[in-house]
Amino acid sequence: MTETSELNRLRAEVDRAYSQLAEITSRLLAMNEAGDLLVSTHDQKAVAAALLEVSARTVGVHEGAVLLSRGEGSFTVIAAVGLDEEQQEALGDSLADFAICQLVEEEQHAFSREEAAAEEAFRDWVAERLEADPEAAVEPTMALFVPVAIEGQMLAVLALAGRADGAPYKEEERTLLDHLAEQAALALDRAMLFAQNADRLQDLSALLRISREVTSTLDLDRVLFSAVNTTAAIVERERAVLALDDGGKLVIRAVSDFPRVDGGTADRLGLTRLLAWLALRKPEAFAVNATEADEDPEIEGREVLLDYFTHEMRALLVTPLKDDQGLVGYLLLESFSEGSFTQSADRDTLTVLAGQLTVAIRNAQLYRQLPMVGALAPLAERRRRWKLLSQAQRRRYIAIAAVLLIAVALIPWPRAVAGDSRLLPAVEVPVRSLVAGFLRSVEVRPGQRVEAGQLLARMEQAGVGARLAGLRAEAAMAREQSVRAEKERDAVGRRLADLRRQETLARLAAAKQEDRGTDVVAPVDGFVLTPTLADREGAFLEPGDVVCEVSPLDTLRVEVAIDETEIGDVRPGERLRVKVLGYPDRQFQGRVSEVSWQGEIEHKGRPAVFLVRGWVENPGGLLKSGMTGRARIEVSPTTLLWRWTKGFYRVLRLAFWF
User: Most buried pick, 109, 140, 152, 498, via CB within 10 A?
Assistant: First the structure.
């Protein structure tokens, strides 16, 4: 009996293990299937449908949906399973489900219906809803909400209904759904990027086509007509209106699908007041719809916009046409739908089109003012001669011109700015007197190289010599007294005389040591800079007075005077080369360390001069402080074209204020 029970238990364990293995295998197959489905398409709805199908089948539910995040707490149902059209519409209008989706977006993890109900934020939302409307629906339709996010950016929410038996989702099932959502997030992000790129390519293609049309002619009417009738290739609109500035007023010059316009077109389209406001205020590009104008009391030009929206249109996009010379006009796009002009990519493309259209309009206007025959005759003659050349000659001339153009306009060539230079010591180290006294002797000459610790001069303290002489005399007197006491066999007298002599000798040694402290030595290796050092012998110096100056001359400081027209190109750290009058055949290398912030006007009516400071190496000690010459500073390379035209450009910019 015992063996039979044990056998039954083992069989039950084996069956349970097989059941768990089958469940794990099923989930792995589901994840693999999800991966295959998600990478097989670039369509957002297909990705969402694949995620929903695999998720629902894996956890054994029959209803669910994927809600795509539109930003600012807005969601749209893009895929559903087990829901008819009416249920999908109800889910799309369910504020309770959207509130939990917002909670999932904020917290970045899954929530069940019960977990959301326990959150304070959701409870506050429910209380506000019920306070505003006691009969409002605050019960969510779905039971589990799983975020579909990538790197913290919410893309969508996977919402699944409750089980038929009311059992909650198991922890391992929620973990599996999280993994499926992560895979779907990658696929959904890729699909969204693919769609954006496709839209962008379509916009660019349309922009290129429109640009070719508006720039292919100098006929102003044709340019305007092409512009308004081709904007539909970029953005969906009902009507496009182009108004140009005419003496401070905006006059309609072209309307899409209108063969011609006249003075009454603005009245018929309900744009008279709007155009007057645009001409007066000259606002930047903006998009507005009827609801925004009605609900926002702070919106600029609200009364004008409300008057405009009394007509049939519900959305308006206004794009200015302007350049550095001022306003050319406005391009107005109108639509019956309020959500027509919300895409930023479309608005960016229209901004580019506005710039190109502005140039085309300016060119057409200038073309009308040209004296055509006299101005274009030389060009026509050159064109005739060009046509007479063979293909080989044309290619040769084009190749030569291209090479010259590249060499002159595109290739940067090394460049340097030059100016008068002067050499100065890199650092001047003052050598100071430590005591008060007279400069007794100078041991070096100006310009001599010295080493640290080398004797430069000797000082004599006031009164030290007389004191030394007095101490020597006292010592001699004490010795004589000692000898006399020895002859007289006066032991006590002799002992006293010896003690006085020893004391005097000690005082004499201290005075000599103090006298030796008057030696002046070099603090560093370098050269003596003071030119008239020998003439200072016998001078009285206080403690701290400068005896001479010593400077290391292996590196010198250089100052270069640079014209203010070139100073803007000089930067610290740039390489410089110096030539001095004493060595005109040699170049000494260095670097710029500082550019002066204040210039000096040396000659009235001439540009100011700025000092550029730097360091220059002094190999062999050839350079001396005070030498003058020329220096060249190697600045950023520029093209030959810029060098040739820089002066003209500077004169032009100073003469004309634009």
Answer: 140
